Amino acid sequence: MNVPTLTIAGIQEGLRSRQFSAAELASEALKFAAAENPKTNAYLLLSEERAIQAARNVDAALARGEDPGVLAGVPIAVKDVIVTKGLRTTCGSRLLEHFVPPYDATAVERMEKAGALIVGKANCDEFAMGSSNENSAFGPVRNPVAPDRVPGGSSGGSAAVVAQGTAVASLGSDTGGSIRQPASFCGVVGVTPTYGRVSRYGLVAFASSLDHIGPFARNVHDAALLLQVIAGRDARDATSAFAPVPDYRQSMQQDVKGLRIGLPKEYFDGLGDETGLQIRKGIELLRSQGCEVVEVSLPHTQYAIACYYIICTAEASSNLARYDGVRYTTRSANAKTMIDMYRMTRGEAFGAECKRRIMLGTYVLSAGYYDAYYLKAQKVRALIAGDFQRAFEKVDALVTPVSPFPAFKLGEKLDDPIQMYLSDIYTITGDLAGVPCMSVPCGVTREGLPVGMQILTRHFDEPGMFRLAAAFERAGGFSV
Amino acid sequence: MATVAPPLATPEQIAKYEPVIGLEVHVQLGTRTKIFCSCPNEFGAAPNTNVCPVCLGMPGALPVLNKEAVELAMQASLALHCEVRNTSIFARKNYFYPDLPKGYQISQYDRPVAEHGWVEIELADGTKKRIGVTRLHMEDDAGKNTHDGYRDSDSYSYVDLNRCGSPLAEIVSEPDMRSSEEAFQYLTELKLAMQFTGVSNCDMEKGNLRCDANVSVRLKGAEKFGTKAEIKNLNSFRFLRQAIDYEIARQVGVLESGGKVVQETRLYNPDIDETLSMRSKEEAHDYRYFPEPDLVPLQISDEWLARVKAGMTELPAERRKRFVEEYGLREYDAQVLTATRELAEYYEEAARVSGDPKLAANWVTGDLAGMLKAEGKEIEDSRVSAARLGELAGLIAKGELTGKLAKEILPKMWESGDAPRAIMEREGLKAMSDTGEIEKIIEQVIAGNPKQVEQYKGGKTSVIQFFVGQVMKATRGQANPATVTEVLKQKLG
Ligand SMILES: [Zn+2]
After folding, report:
1. Would you name the residues of A annotated as active-site residues?
2. What does the pLDDT look like over B66-79, one tens digit per residue?
3. Beta strand B264-269 with B167-173: parallel, antiparallel or unpaired?
4. CA–CA dist A369, A366 (Å, integer)
5. Residue in chain A lying closest to B48 (CA)
6. CA angle B486, B490, B491 (to 5 degrees)
7. How far does Cα B301 stand from its chain's mean position?
8. Which of B60, B104, B290 sits opposite A314 (nearest CB)?
9. How do residues B187-238 score in pLDDT, each as one tens digit?
10. Which value does ipTM take for this structure?
């Protein structure tokens, strides 16, 4: 078996035909991950014991002639903002350096029930705040494609482990592009499902109304299959949707003849040459598959970044209040009074980006500013969602770039937070509108850096999104 | 900056002013489980044992609204004559404190579950007054910090999160009260309404009912409200009265000395019977409310509201009215018998069994109440059941027992738990219904007391009481005194 080239279908075939056992696969994958990790720092922890136990369960089920589940034996990494029972979950933060959760996230529970092997916890920006994975308290992640470059963020580790082949798939989280942007930087598939499609129970909150759990994989089929397992109503998340989960495999077999694709004109102004070139090639390929391509407008796009950074920081300022030194967090050793416990613990342990966002969010919610900032941002959010709704009256899907530029160098944008925020420009609107969106690989630049194409569809139209993505992949779009 | 506080106002000074009082009352809803998780909503477990990731505010845990809590809040709203909103929104109230593990309380802000209600109170002169209820909203309770009682309490505080996530209804009144007595009446009626509907047991000692007061004073006749102070920690009915009276005297004292009342939060200290400044307006928290993104808006359909309304027990005021109209009770007795839901229910059962509601009322408020008081028991602990007491009253009503006999039998019922009829049979006690036998005894008594007969015939008719007493003694109380009196009058001519 060759771990870095395995797919879910390949593993199922290998297990069925007894080419390898799940236990063999687990130890092979873990060995490979341990060997590769120093190159990227993509894993914060490898969970040998848990993965091997799960693999033994799969082998036992197979021996009894039982169905071991659709993810049987699949090595999967989990972003470290998603809690895992008994496995330290740091959120990339010093504050949770020693936090071992007493429970599993619903998505993790569902994956393991389907036979998945949790091989480790993936590095990420602290509390999922960042676009380069340089905000992790445990060091940056290097892009497996170009080690002097960032893997993107905040789910940098989740993208990197799939790109380097140490996991077949992974879970990430997306609040403003944290799945799609690293997927595009690392050349893998990354999916942000409709808001409410996957339970957030166990996803450590950054901005609750924008947070999504979603899968990374090396191909569209694997990503869809993983989503299929983790999607669906969960009584433990009041915002999770009741809508039934359709069989995504069926939609991926359909062709795309006659589908109407919209290109939002606001997303193609000022697009970098190299990225623009690859995306345009990708669009031509879709046209050649019978898609009808039309220009559309999402007129409120220019307000998206301001709107996003008000809402997400407001929610973050509240969500991060619980890391106060009282319970599971580390506590400042210098604190002698209660007020000092709060100030010193948080002042010493939060990284710069978290502090920046907590302060911004506290400010926009303050008495006298709420209406001007938070309330207005919510109104703008509704306008942006309205833009999408009107566009989807005319077209079946929107296609855009994921990022204005490919993976940048480590340290390149670290001192310029505004520049870093602007790199989210094409991805945050999907989160604000709550529509499903994904990044599929769409060729590489002259330097060999991957480019990602974004596909967005109507609420809960993941089948339509996967249909288009799978057709693009079949037509050779990944290597445009 | 230490300044000497002006002296408290004299009664003459206070008389020039009108106090304006509003109350904020927290009622713990008597649900089986907490408001956002499935931990038991119980009191008294070992510290930090009634907890789970949700109420501990663990990273990644999410709240899910408890339907029972919503229904109890709906009942509370209806009991206070509030309008229940079809859509209400939960909001986060952000502040730091060790007993608040999430760093925010999940409450309701600009769209509470219910608004625009009222509570009717009775003033000293017998007139009724309606106190407006501004709003009722739902929220989760915090835990408890303990600052003493541990070996290292000089350097550490202990946090118990068992209470964390207990469901609360906060009920905010209009500033409609004008004295501590009115505030007392309002809280009494509110508590009764919550108890009658089964929304909460309102045990103040356990913190199931907590009260803060907003107090200001203005010169009589003035239209504008004075500057208010919020008084916290009014956790008994007595403290409520004392604290408000103290605060009125303090504020009038400040004004009469030429000073200004400052807007602030004050804490009542019952040990010294004073309110003390806790924090000024400048130090007040900015709670940075915003809609709770982890919960969807609470939708209450008209059908759901109607269903909850149909399942509600009668409110105390309604019950009181019915007792007067249906059973012919006096206002006062109706008031006494609706003091608690248990008492009202006990009485109604006894009245039903007896067939004579007025007589049953006399026995519940009279002899039975005396026996309960003697043993320090509440009606729910009565050793005589409502049905048994009803039987006893029924026997009197049918003439099978005299009141005097019943008074002998009731303590025996209390002791043995037996039915009144069983005791009557065992002890040979029953009302004498054979008039022939009564006549015979009366004749004997008349024959044995010629001197008294002389007096009676001489015009001293009050002597008849002497004869009644003699006859009752001779019959061991089994004769009906009314019958005896009548026969005596005939015989004595
Ligand atoms: Zn709980």
Report:
1. 79, 154, 178
2. 999 999 999 999 99
3. unpaired
4. 5
5. A327
6. 115
7. 31
8. B290
9. 999 999 999 899 998 888 888 999 999 999 999 999 999 999 999 988 889 8
10. 0.95
